[in-house]
User: Fold this.
Amino acid sequence: MKFLDLPALLSASGRVRLPGSKSISNRVLLLAALSDGETEVLDLLVSDDTQRMLEALQTLGIGVTPLGGENWLIRGGGGSFPIKSASLFLGNAGTAFRPLTAALALVGGDYTLTGVARMHERPIGDLVDSMRQLGAEIIYLGNEGFPPLQLKPVSIQQGGVVRVRGDVSSQFLTGLLMALPLTGQTVVVEVVGELISKPYIEITLATMARFGVQVERDGWQRFTVLAGSRYVSPGRIYVEGDASSASYFLALGAIGGGPVRVEGVGRNSIQGDVRFAEALAKMGAEIELGSNWMEARASKSGLVAVDLDCNHIPDAAMTLATTALFAKGTTILRNIASWRVKETDRIAAMATELRKLGAVVEEGEDFIRITPANLKPAAIDTYDDHRMAMCFSLAAFGTPLRINDPKCVAKTFPDYFERFAAVTKAAPVIAIDGPSASGKGTVAARVATALGYAYLDSGALYRLTALAARQAAVDWADETAVAAIAAELNVEFSGGDIRLNGELVGDAIRTEELSVGASKVAALPAVREALLFRQRVFNKAPGLIGDGRDMGSVVFPRAVLKVFLTASAEARAERRYKQLIEKGFSANLADLLLDLKQRDERDSQRSVAPLRQEADAKLLDTTHLTIEQAVNQVLEWSREALQ
Ligand code: DC
Assistant:
């Protein structure tokens, strides 16, 4: 899927069972592989990053058996890998790449580690330097300091003191610590520079402890792994829900009323990102915590901006950046330099995309400052970064928007958008489709007024495209040129008025000639594609009535009510005849009937989005109905659908 269009949201509430934590999943898999004995790993995250780790372990000769669902059996290698020469592809999974580098460098073997292009831009030099201090032989196959890497077989028997930088990525220290029991020696690790993302080190130490290795530590500066430390399987281990993934749903509850409850992490979690809940509470949300769940709801006073040091919640802090769009005042997130070396440069990406929505953003080396504004629709790029896609879904509380490449969420949360849809309520759409001159425009406009909803006359967009093409002397059959015009169409709908390039259009788009032109340009797939998002941005609170040919089938397939409104060709020709005469145009009934039949034919026979009654649409034949009767029927159906 190239993009996902999100309608404006009205509210959020419900429960979400979280997928397993990525950080814990990949640590548990590696330690289970390094253990003596078999480990049943339950509730593992099923995602790209864990898939890369599972594949790598299998390639290295570790027994990996699926037990169904999110459960796996890992047969440990007791501190070594059976396969001594292998090439591993690790995608963009930092939580697989760094620890595997450390472990493989110490067990001895001939290994090549590669990833996607972005992985090759993410630094690993500090970890390599540390491993070299222990005698590991590591060669850079590309740029100095970055993957891909080649590891040479060596026999490590060295203990002593190893220094590692802690201020670029905590994954270096994590990788090193998890690998050290493989040396069989006592090793002291000294952290150089201020250690960032400390909570992730807590996860590492807690997970190592579950596998029987206690690390002695002196603050955040010195860590000692004693000679004789060995990983032993705990037999069975449950992976906690992902606390970073929890952040999106908690924020939904805080912005959209709530309560939204996430299950799988809570007060007793070992993940630092549960402290996102504190940050959200600081912004004014009401938070409740249980041992294995968390819940957020909006407070009466709404959300307010915060000025926060985010070192302790680097990943979840991204969620604060888009939550800030709904907080009063300017939010400042500090100490987030690590964002720059993640899946993408997240500070730059966040600033660029927030600005597209209209927010005022200032970015610095290690901070971002966000002032909200009235949000405007935009197409958000996600930079192959799952968190960008998930964070920006929150913006739908302010505007309909497009998320490009939404599938990137598969890195940690493959069914994120399904869960998102399950706990959010979108501004409803009532779709009214039907042939020309069936009266659906009049009915739709009246229903919109009665319900206080916005009204989209989608046919007008095709008519305007035909008009703009005519003005630019572009042939209606020239698909590329007409699509370019449709994409750039400068139109403004306000009340009943339509402006094209600032000029009132009036009845100029209602002539028979332009009816034919609209029908012709509407048959061009590229034109329909160009107008799709433009139509969807009408889907705002409190709701929308859309009138056209493909409202229910293509543009708003999730419409709460779909009506197929029609009348006999003769009745429609007569209505059109009266309309034209009233407006002072000359008209001939026989010609009109012929024209109408040809247009019906073209609209229903075209290959893209043809006019037809959808299986889930209600048929309303108005041949013998007055406008009032038709309006009342649609209103009655609407009330039922909106209940
Ligand atoms: O509803 P209308 O008569 O104003 O529409 C003008 C033309 O635009 C009509 O021939 C079909 C086309 N159209 C379409 O293909 N899809 C829509 N959703 C609306 C109109």
The two ends are 32 Å apart (CA to CA).
